[in-house]
């Protein structure tokens, strides 16, 4: 079993290197030559910046499904007939839309550590706890993303006629199947433009995690700028990398939008 896991790990490492768009065999940084500031290996900062790109993309992709799931349930609560659920959803969105993202990140990163340490101290354990910066960034960005996402989804829910629910009842579908088969396909199509904008904001907000030590694009280029004294070059490179991610995201969102419109037309 351990041999199979080792082989799988080796294959994954090779796959990451072979298809790395920056430091792979045909990566952009390698094509610029071994004498450039972004050369891969010991001669330049290419490896570090490529790692920062992976961290930024990984953090965004890890945050997206969590934020969507939380936002979906908050949107359901905000349109519930139960007053307490509507109030709880409204309080949640007001808090996390009102707080600056950086402050939310600090509260999660430092506050959760202090809370865990206080609980351990209450049980007589004085061990110092430090939570993972990636996990803290993911949690903080997820709650911020979900607070905005819930408003987008709530607007999409309200755009769907109530007759759609009644049609599901008339067909003998319980509310869970009505939601999955009738409401959700329409919800995705209606909410997609707004969710696409939120994804773009999420990509940019990942730069905030550099302040808690996570090695994202901004932190890696910042370190390179300080050491090499080439601040303009490396911060311009950070701009180019974020813009490249935005362009790729726009293409992906457009493809999903066309697919959802074709799927809706077939129905």
Q: In brief, what are we looking at here?
A:
The chain has 267 residues and is mainly α. The protein is built from ten helices and no strands. The relative contact order is 0.11.
Topology:
Blueprint: H1 2-18, H2 28-31, H3 46-78, H4 83-98, H5 101-122, H6 133-159, H7 163-170, H8 175-205, H9 217-228, H10 231-266
Plain-language structure description:
The relative contact order is 0.11. Helix 4 crosses helix 6, helix 6 packs across helix 8 and helix 7 crosses helix 8. Helix content is 77%, strand content 0%. The longest helix is centred in the last third of the chain and has 36 residues. The chain contains ten helices and no strands. The radius of gyration is 23 Å and the shape is globular. By secondary structure, it is mainly α. The protein has a domain of 167 residues: MetI-like fold (Orthogonal Bundle).
- Tell me the series of helices and strands, N- to C-terminal: HHHHHHHHHH
Query: Could you state the CATH homologous superfamily of one domain?
Result: MetI-like
Question: What class do helices, strands and sheet pairing give?
Answer: mainly alpha
Beta-strand proportion = under 5%
Low-confidence stretches: none
Number of strand segments: 0
In CATH terms, what is the architecture of one domain?
Answer: Orthogonal Bundle
Reported by name, the CATH topology of one domain is: MetI-like fold
Using only C-alpha atoms, the radius of gyration works out to: 23 Å
Principal-axis shape equals: globular
Spatial gap, N to C terminus: 47 Å
Mean pLDDT over the full residue set? 84
What is the tally of helical segments?
A: 10
Under CATH at level 1, the class of one domain stands as Mainly Alpha
Helix content: over 70%
